[in-house]
Amino acid sequence: MRIFGIIPARGGSKGVPGKNIKLLNGKPLLQYTSEIALKSQYLTTVILSSDDNQIITVAKSLGIQVPFLRPEEFAQDQTPTIDVIIHALEWFRNHAIFFDAVCLLQVTSPFRTVEFLDKAIEKFIASGCDSLVSVQKVPHEYNPHWTFEVNPEENLKIVTGEEKIISRRQELPDTYHRDGSIYIMKTEVLLQQHSLYGKSISFIESPPEFYLNIDTVADWEKAEQMIKNREK
To answer: Exposed site from 3, 55, 168, 215, fewest CB < 10 Å?
Structure first.
């Protein structure tokens, strides 16, 4: 299976200015993701998609291919990630290069390992599903069977639609949320359904010790603390 690895990293980050190439423990944040992507035994091609020349220069120094400069129309605050991926796929299709699947790796999840990435790809292939996402278990206090929304009468109703709430924690089913570390999907699902997920979604649970999604200064500080803890 030919799998396309894409690392999106546009300029103009607002939560943490310049975060994609900001040094984290002496390494550009981008380097954490690029290293594991290049070491994967399953990714046929790995590229960076960016509109920023500084980020592109750093990416090239790390050995990541940057075959094009991302057009401004695909580098806005509200640009959906799927549009960025499809733009990259179409660039390769125009050069007669085709892929069976796409693996999206976001720079903001720096602590995943190559072993975990390859395990996720193996599970995706074996599952035959349209997609696979990495997830974290939802803590029981936030389980959707224990959460509410407001109905038209301004009263609470259980989000899941059940009439009676599950009373015991031990009876709650496991629920999960996407953690942003890994997304894998069939190319045909992206192009034909315009979806990152399709109709069947496999999953892999990320080890909690490397779960982090850097969007804010507080997240960055947490990343620094996680590194210090590991060094101890």
So the answer is: 168
Give whole-number Cα distances, 160 to 32, 55, 166, in Å: 38, 43, 11
123 sits in which H/E element:
helix 114-127
Q: One-letter amino acid identity for 199?
A: K
- Residue range 152-189, pLDDT digits in tens: 999 999 999 998 999 999 999 999 999 999 999 999 99
3-state secondary structure of 148: strand
pTM summary value = 0.93
Considering only the C-alpha atoms of the chain, give the largest distance between any 2 of them, rounded to a whole number of Å.
Answer: 59
Pairing of strands 43-49, 3-8: parallel
DSSP-derived secondary structure letter, 140: G
**Torsion-angle region of residue 12: left (phi > 0), alpha (psi -120 to 50) or beta?**
left
